[in-house]
Amino acid sequence: MTDSLPSASSPEVETTLVYAHGLAALVTLLISVCFGFFAAVELLAPQIAGTSPWFTWGRLRYDHTQGIMLGWLGNAFFAFLYHAIPVLTGRRVTSPKLGQWIFGIWNFAIVLPGWILVLAGYSQPLEWAEFPLVIDAFVVLALVLAIIQFLPPFFSSHLEDLYVSSWYIIGGLVFTLLAYPMGNFVPELVPGARGAAFSGLWIHDAVGLFVTPLALAITYFVIPAATRKPIYSHFLSMLGFWLLFFLYPLNGTHHYVFSVIPMSAQIGAIIASTLLGVDVIIVVANLFLSLRGTGWFPRDPALRFVGTGTMFYLIVSIQGSVQAQMSVNQSVHFTDWVVGHSHMAMLGFASFAALGGIVHVWQRIPWARYNHDLIDLGYWALLLGVIMMVGDLTIAGLVEAGQWKSAAPWIESVRAAKPYWIVRMLTFVPIGGGFLFVMAGLFAGNTREEAG
Amino acid sequence: MNRVLRMSYLVAGLGGVGFFVMSILLLGVWPGRALDNQVGRTQPAHPPALTASEQRGRAIYGRDGCAYCHTQQIRYLENDVKRFGKATLAWETIFDYPQLWGTRRIGPDLSREAGVRSRDWQFSHLYAPQTLVADSVMPAFSWMFDGAPNQPRQEARDLLDYLDTLGRDRSLAAPEGETHARDNCDCSNDDLRFAFGPGPLNASPAMARRSGIVPALSHGDAARGLVVYKQNCASCHGAKGEGDGKGAVGLDPKPINFTEQEYSTNRLAFALWNGVAGTAMPAWRDLDLADLASVAEVVRAIHSPQPEPVIPQEILELGAQVYSQRCTQCHGKDGAGDGPAAGQFPIAPTNFRTQRPAAAASLRALRNGIEGTPMASWTPELSEAELSAVAYYVRTFWSGQ
Fold it and tell me: Which residues contact A295 (CB under 8 A, 6 or more apart)?
């Protein structure tokens, strides 16, 4: 085991695949953000979708989250893995040819047809599992191929040097493959409350076993690589890792507190949710201690993105522990508070980490264009956007909760939410703009070769 | 060393998979067994499953993201139970492949939607929600119609059939089903309180009912009443109360034209509190009483009193004679809407003691009938003189109370 990245001498990185997945990630990101934006607009102007079924709110909503999870984060993680695996193991990934297949399947058999099928009315009404079953089959296939592609280098040698990012990569890929069918297939076979128990598990596993481990793998990777200092404590890294994989799957039922699901399962999940907050404090403390000396806003945008993502990870996890508590959950559950929470997780934490990862690997592709100033601008716009959106939705959630507790007619809670929905819609400007700036920063400017 | 390391990684890997399997066992399989067991003990005999149409409707409900704004899960919490009705029991969800509990509640929970709204209301609302609920943010599903809210295509009819199943089985099984479930549920105190408490099974404040105690309305505030009218009533009854709001198009019977009907305050209070069963007029038990009183004043003020014409005695006698032969079966001897046949119709006959139609409206109803109601046209049966005599005669029942 090791506490720093191996300083492998020029491992062979499949830069084309890094670039291709990076590009796909950013393109699907912009499309997914637009789905979200249009959904936000439709809440304020419901007639704007016209008389076509293709762009009704529900379908846009499905495509928004599936696009963010699979299109944007999926591709971003793959881009990072093609860079990280050779660096971490000193070996090439299994096969560039296989890489082309994974790229093709992921984007042209999963994300693109998934989006279109949802808009055409073929989907399943399960959170984080909205793409139809036929797409799910391709996701499982792609995850198997990804495991074949990325994991063998870890096991062919240097096992004693397994760095914490490697643990997260192995854990993330393996457990996503295990959890995905549970969330996507089981509720179709097991009805009602019983199925909901599995849906609850998957809602949390999608974030906890896919998004979080790979985002943390990026964070643990970029920090030492950019600061050229080892991680603060390998012991804390491993403690955090194991607690995470122990606790995350046990959180699921907190999505259905006060339901008919047995109270002991609910309470168990609430206890696990509380402990998870403690675990995240360990993980984040280790990361922040590793960032010592870089200041609050490091000059390297990759480092700044992962550092800020880590901050959001801390906040969103503690928020999660708090909102799992029955006294809080009974008020904020079902409100915009939770929508704010998931944006802090997927945008503030995961997307910042993924952007850090992409910027980091971009810096290391000799022929990739790179413009520091544009990326900088993107960072600040995104930071503003996340804070605006999460703050706004959190307050909206509290307002809705207050309305629901009162005797006011239901529609009053909708009226009360509208001003907040306007602000949420406007956050499209900093968020969409921020992503555009980052994207421009990765496709404009000089290449490293040109800069010399 | 390497061997030891490999072994320890193997153990760690197995341990990790063990965690995951444990999570599924603890939070998926075990609760599932407990739920299964509970369903077996509490469900009524043979709860009706979904018909083909209802299943198609369910697929549409899932496909179009309805569950992402409307939950189908009444939580074991006082606020949920107060707003929507008794908490959702496990056996109520046994036909939900996949579950549609939802995690966000932008619109109201729909667990007990069956029977809350009339079919014409639901169609009109699906077709163009804002024409009925002015501030709604629901998308329009107009492509499920042939260009008008009263021309639903199969998709819209299927979806509505599905909505009519929400909460149906439990309400069909009551009251014996409730007793059976309560006695066998092995319930905690919270379960007893929220799933089997004293409140109504369906607490929707909009569900219309034929009878029920109405709280007395005090004096309202006209300015406030106008706001309430504009927010809640104008969509169907029209900004000026002429029954021509945007939502009126697809409704059957049409919303009342308030300019030609005079109501007693008690009659308005009843209609506001209990709705008008059998029509699209929902109940408004969620508005506070001061608002109801205010809006009742606004409605009363829309009717402009005309000087009453003096009707010759012989015409009234003719009217009385025809009325006693033709109208008493439904409208009752004294015009109170309580004839022996009244209870057989989904819509209660007009009570002329508390509602006085203008002579023109009364005559029109007699000539043409009232579409969407049991009131038929009397044109072929009665002479012109008889029609107008009855039209005047029914206005004499008015008590104003």
Answer: none
Q: Helix or strand or coil: residue A95? A: coil
| pLDDT tens digits, one per residue of A315-341 | 999 999 999 999 999 999 999 999 999
Q: Which among B64, B98, B133 has CB closest to A124?
A: B98
Instruction: Tell me whether residues A410 and B97 touch, CB distance under 8 A.
Output: no
Q: Which among A123, A194, A269 is the nearest to B63, CB-wise? A: A123
C-alpha distance from B367 to closest chain A C-alpha (Å): 39
**Closest listed residue to residue A375, CA positions, set A450, A303, A296:** A303
* List of chain A residues whose C-beta atoms are within 8 Å of the C-beta of residue B136: 46, 411, 414
DSSP letter string, B358-395: -HHHHHHHHHH--TTSS----TTTS-HHHHHHHHHHGG
What residue spans define the domains of chain B? 222-302, 313-397
Classify B222-302 by CATH class. Answer: mainly alpha
Q: Do residues A450 and A425 touch, judged by C-beta distance below 8 A?
A: no
Interchain pair A334, B71: CB under 8 A = yes
CA distances from A432 to A35, A177, A330 (A): 11, 31, 33
Yes or no, beta carbons of B140 and A47 under 8 Å apart: yes
- How many angstroms separate the CA atoms of B11 and A446, rounded? 49
Best residue of A167, A260, A270 to probe chain B, by most B CBs closer than 10 Å: A260
A8 pLDDT above the threshold of 50: no
10 Å CB burial of residue B305 (0-12, 13-18, 19+) is: exposed
Under the banding of pLDDT at 50, 70 and 90, the label for residue A7 is very low
CA A244/CA A231 separation, integer angstroms? 18
The nearest CA of chain B is from the CA of A188 a distance in Å of: 5
Instruction: Tell me how close the Cα of B288 comes to any Cα of chain A, in angstroms.
Output: 8
Q: Does the bond joining B98 to the residue before it have cis omega, within 30 degrees of 0?
A: yes
What are B356's strand-pairing partners?
B262
The stretch A431-442 carries a mean pLDDT of 97
Question: Among B127, B338, B329, which Cα is nearest to B246's?
Answer: B127
CB–CB contact B68 A408 (8 Å) = no
Question: Which residue ranges form the domains of chain A, and what is each CATH number?
Answer: 15-447 (1.20.210.10)
Phi then psi for B104, rounded to 5 degrees? -135, 145
pLDDT at site A9: 45
What's the gap in Å between the CA of A136 and the closest CA on chain B? 15
What's the pTM value of the predicted model, to 2 decimals?
0.94
Given its phi and psi angles, is residue B99 left (phi above 0), alpha (psi -120 to 50 degrees) or beta? beta
Comparing CA positions, the residue from B313, B135, B291, B280 lying closest to residue B222 is B291
DSSP B114: T
**What class, spelled out in words, does domain B313-397 have in CATH?**
mainly alpha
Report residue A5's pLDDT band, with 50, 70 and 90 as the boundaries: low
* CB within 8 Å of B17: residues ≥ 6 apart: A174, A178
Question: Bridge-partner residues for A369, per DSSP?
Answer: A447
Q: Residue B240: which residues within 8 A CB-CB, separation 6 or more? A: B259, B302
Which of A321, A368, A342, A259 lies closest to A19 in space, CA to CA? Answer: A368
Q: Is A3's pLDDT higher than 60?
A: no
Picking from B20, B31, B65, the nearest residue to A125 by CB comes out as B65
- Return the DSSP state at B162: H
Cα–Cα dist B132/B251, whole Å: 10
Contact flag A51-B142 (C-beta cutoff 8 Å): yes
Ramachandran region, residue B369 (left: φ > 0; alpha: ψ -120 to 50; beta: rest): left
